[in-house]
Amino acid sequence: MTRAVVVMGVAGCGKSTLGRALAQRLGWSFVEGDLCHPPENVARMTAGIPLDDEARQPFLRNVATALTASRQGAVASCSALKRGYRDLIRQEVGDVLFALPQLSRTDLEQRMAQRPGHFMPTSLLDSQLATLEPPDADEQALILDGNLPVAEQVSRIEAALRHS
Question: What is the pTM of this model?
């Protein structure tokens, strides 16, 4: 059975909320991806500067390291917007299920506006949406309706884990 899940997607899609709920249900550890960013990345995003591929590398490696540190299994919230980013995590971790909650731009913007004090400004949403490469058919991934209740999304991920 897969022992690592990455809840992926653009800002505001519910990665952290879903990831925490899934980790709690499974009895696994939760890795908050936002805490895996080096300070330079946080400063860039706070200033409204999107991260490029080079800036994302330390972040992705930190997420992968945190996932592999758990013996019982782990869930991470991590944007993992491009196939190459997911490939890097798979190279480091091995068997990983990626779960992508999808929402409309309007819903994403509303959710982001309700997160006062978060370093990711709403102004970077378009950049993230433009960067997002949805998982390909050959990737172990599950695309979810991000408007479903969190408990329902968790149940769907659990079912996918049982069949992996």
Answer: 0.88
